Amino acid sequence: MATEASTSAAADAGGGSWVDGMSADNIKGLVLALSSSFFIGASFIVKKKGLKKAGASGVRAGVGGYSYLYEPLWWAGMITMIVGEVANFAAYAFAPAILVTPLGALSIIISAVLADIMLKEKLHIFGILGCVLCVVGSTTIVLHAPQEREIESVAEVWILATEPAFLFYATIVLATTFVLIFRFIPQYGQTHIMVYIGVCSLVGSLSVMSVKALGIALKLTFSGMNQLIYPQTWLFTTVVIACILTQMNYLNKALDTFNTAVVSPIYYTMFTSLTILASVIMFKDWDRQSPTQIVTEMCGFVTILSGTFLLHKTKDMVDGLQPSLPIRIPKYADEDGYAAEGIPLRSAAEGIPLRSPRAAE
């Protein structure tokens, strides 16, 4: 009886009853993260259908038109994306970032599958393999994710954020970001893809930590422990807004300058890696795990990365044709399909046009 009581108490201290090795909070975070991936993945398809419909009767978004703003289907896609982002925000309040962040890759699978069904954009056989790898990697991480740390106030999160290890990480991130923005972007922003993506990923790792802190504050507030009276809550809110605006600015620059099929997997890899590192430092996720669990999680993460790269590498491939994608797609081309630099905008195989970043809108 004593053993049963201690087990029950341990389960309660871990955030809820245990189901298949996962706490109740982790299960809530998992469900929210999966819901987020579905909504975000579906939103891309709905928005694209709206863009196509608007482009048929007005000026296309790819050439500077805004007729899609009058298209209900596009707005349906935008609302779907907002719902997905809200679910993702809520997921961080319940589950560790090492569980939530990698599951973002599942939105790529949803998008690819729905594109095959609704837009008739056929998925290459290696793209299907990429989907399988993402699912296997995500399942591995879910089954071995650490339990969410029990936090009773936003002040406790602030203590974690001001510990020397995380302050050192945040200082390195901010210093590197400023160097990239003021030293490297003016010279190399238009030619080196890692400059813009580096800024997005570094700032993104801090934004996720702030989002998680804000999510915890809101969760505690809704449960009856008002956290809005603490100045730390509003400080985390300010950091969230500043980081997200910075991410959006430089991610748009990257998408406008380089091929989307190259930007997406590199950004996902760097952003997820740095977010996991920041979470491990701030919330000490791995302190509650064995070396075997940690290695297994890393294997799952690498599997997801492999699947993501494979999906993006084959997104413009048709069976029997393998167009070579240039790293940078120029904005303007002459009538022969060549840019001023002499870079062909069409593949050698049957003259299939390559996808420009604006086409992804």
TrEMBL record:
Q: Report what the protein is called.
A: Probable magnesium transporter
* Keyword field contains Transport: yes
The record, for InterPro entries, names: Mg_trans_NIPA
Q: What does this protein do?
A: Acts as a Mg(2+) transporter. Can also transport other divalent cations such as Fe(2+), Sr(2+), Ba(2+), Mn(2+) and Co(2+) but to a much less extent than Mg(2+).
For this chain, the family text in UniProt reads: Belongs to the NIPA (TC 2.A.7) family.
Coiled-coil region(s): none
A single GO cellular-component term from the record reads:
plasma membrane
Q: Does the keyword Mitochondrion apply?
A: no
Instruction: Give the PANTHER family listed for this entry.
Output: MAGNESIUM TRANSPORTER-RELATED, PTHR12570
Known partners and oligomeric status:
Homodimer.
The membrane-spanning stretches of this chain are: 27-46, 66-83, 89-114, 126-146, 166-186, 193-217, 229-250, 262-282, 294-311
Pfam hit, one? Mg_trans_NIPA
- Topology in the lipid bilayer: Multi-pass membrane protein
Subcellular location(s): the record lists: Cell membrane; Early endosome; Membrane
Q: Which UniProt keywords apply?
A: Cell membrane, Endosome, Ion transport, Magnesium, Membrane, Transmembrane, Transmembrane helix, Transport
Q: What is its main location?
A: membrane
Instruction: Identify the domain of life.
Output: Eukaryota
According to the UniProt entry, its GO molecular function terms are: magnesium ion transmembrane transporter activity
